[in-house]
Amino acid sequence: MTRRRFGAGIFAGAMAAQTPPSRGEQRPTYPGIWRFRFGTPEPQTPVSARHYPVAESALRDLAVVTKCPISPSEITGRRSRRGYHLRLPLEPGEMIYGLGLQFQSFLQRGSKKTLRVNADPAADLGDSHAPVPFYVSNHGYGVFVDTARYAAFYCGDKVRVDDPHEPPPEQPEVMAAVAQLPKQFERYHMAKSSHVEVEIPVAAGVDVYIFAGPQMREAVQRYVLFSGGGALPPRWGLGFWYRAYGGATQDEVIALADELRSQNIPCDVLGLEPGWQSHSYSCSFTWSSNFPDPRKALDKLNAQNYHVNLWEHAFTNPTAPFYADLKPYSGDYEVWDGLVPDFAGSQARKIVGDYHDANLVSAGVAGFKLDECDNSDFTHYWSFPEISKFPSGLDGEQMHCFFGLRYQDTMQAIFERRKTRTWGLVRSSHALAAPSPYTLYSDLYDHREFIRAVANASFCGLLWCPEVRDAKDNEDLIRRLQTVIFSPLAMVNAWYIRNPPWKQVDREANNAGQFAAGWQDMEQTCRKLVELRMQLIPYLYSAYVRYHQSGLPPFRALVMDYPLDPQTWAIDDEYLMGDSVLVAPVVRGEKKRRLYLPEGDWFDFWTSAKISGQQWLDNDVPLDRIPVFVKAGTLLPLARVTQHTADPAVFELTVRRYGPGDLLAVLHEDDGSLSGPITTVQLEWRENEDAGSVSRPSNSTSMSYSVTRWERTTE
Ligand code: GAL
Question: Whole-model pTM?
Fold first, then answer.
């Protein structure tokens, strides 16, 4: 059917309503993944525009599932005047999660989310830096709707007049499980069958992918591997990041670098904010007079083992050297007087990428912070409108969905050519982003939302940085920094404060150079936290290798690992880091922290006290401790504290035994290149020796990790 038939005339609505729902046509895909085609999809979708290939061989390593977890007859679609409409089933007691980097909610059953790209969500409506049309169910499967439109997901709260209205089936177990959810979910008929309704604007059809479990973890793994596998950071990406004041001069940045080293505050990455450019809104991509000799500055910082990360956004100022070349390959609206590169086309990607390679990366820049690539409809009203047109054929709505992704790809092409890894920051992303070496961040600053985002990002193959800036008081700073240390990217973003926040948390006083009395104590507290991050790097790196190779996110909401325990279904303020560490961050003002430990035995990271799981605890939370628990059976490697990851001492380990249990740990060594071999090193505790051993494959040439101390924790 053509669109015109539906688009015109007073009967169009009635005709559309008569269109019978149809089943999708099944198309071949990969093991454990089913694809259904409805109507005629748009040519530009996340799958059709993908940069990274599917990680096929890793998909084949997952458990074989031969039956689609949703009955294909229950997935229906129909064309309407408004675009395309899909309907998927939900079972009684089924919970769904995901839909991207949602700040304000976690368990999505019962909500409506419109997946618009937006930096300043005014309410919990689905607007996000990284909306992703993928959800995962606690019944062990995932659903991906392959669209670059602002799709609306009605997650189980709509009932059609012609839906069967029989009384709820007798399922006492489901009723009992749902009854354990917090009060705010009661109204959504969680215990009944329902549907997810998805409306995709404009499109005349869409592909839907179903990812098998059997549990949530595997469904997410399959989605991440379908995306291309998880991104693997260089080790330095897991160290501590400090972004200098936006207006800092070359000398001030060098003084900061010296200060961090002389004060023994570990740091691997120094970020430069807008002031490095001669024009920054829009961007000139050329050094400002603040940096009279950027080469010298980069050489000096690199010699101190700092990796330099440059802030920018893509809106290209007329003074940018490649402005004229880019103009034919940009959109028809300006942003901040600059061009909007058409990153959906290879020409714009090449022009922007080549310039960055030749002028910045070749000079010693290790990576970028790709800012402002989202949109703003509620507070500052910037960015290109949805009515924009781009030479590649995209409109503004599609381009907003793609802009962050394709911007990341543009930069990644540089590092792929150089066969090196980068690690960066990005403010917008979308579907299939897992392989992209970028971590999301925001200008928003609600600490609880930042914690929830760590848990939420895990469902969709995204990474999130709950960065620290200024703070309300010392308690706020410490609590925020604790969260950051146990997060995908550990960063202080001092872009609007001249001095480190530990010297003065208050923005105005900080910028006036008025340091708090006794700031040295705060510096010591923060130093200790940053040191803890350095100790965790070997453990974290292995969690990232697992993400890279098998698609399992390094940070995960509890429900992903414990989907059968209804107590975990709504927990959005705790998460797992790797397989063995549970983190329950605390926000300012909390004197007791109510937290849940799932089944099994756990050990308090700080006291080594053993605690049985499957219970809620009201923990005392002294300011110097973020609640962290280690699963029984873990061998936790802790690295020697170094000032940066280039110091070989990062490979010297103390291994703590939290037994009894499997007492194996897997670590990884490699040459740090983009795709060099990764060696697996195994640590094993030998009970009778009260110590352990390290083994690596006999053909391994890398000899990095060594254990200097085996520690038995009390039980
Ligand atoms: C914001 C960004 C901040 C900082 C600032 C500089 O858009 O979120 O982290 O970089 O720009 O102007």
Answer: 0.96
Distances (CA, A) of 533 to 95, 484, 485, 523: 34, 9, 5, 15
* Residue-wise pLDDT tens digits, 244-266: 999 999 999 999 999 999 999 99
Rounded distance from Cα 371 to ligand 1 centre (Å): 7
pLDDT digits (tens, 9 = 90+) for 161-188: 888 776 666 688 888 888 889 888 776 6
CATH node for 235-550: 3.20.20.80
Nearest to 632 by CA among 681, 582, 593: 582
Selecting from 3.40.50.300, 2.60.120.200, 2.115.10.20, 2.60.40.1760, what CATH number does the domain 33-227 have?
2.60.40.1760
CB 632 within 8 A of CB 660: yes
Residue 316 falls in which region: left (phi positive, over 0), alpha (psi -120 to 50) or beta: beta
Tell me if 360 sits within 8 A of 298, measured CB to CB.
no
Of 454, 576, 547, 561, residue with least CA distance to 217: 561
Q: Among 458, 440, 410, 637, which residue's Cα sits nearest to residue 559?
A: 458
**Ligand 1 pocket: which of 280, 443, 469, 489 to mutate (most atoms <8 Å of CB)?**
443
Instruction: Kindly report the protein residue whose alpha carbon is nearest to atom 11 of ligand 1.
Output: 371
Query: Is the CB of residue 488 less than 8 Å from the CB of residue 522?
Result: no
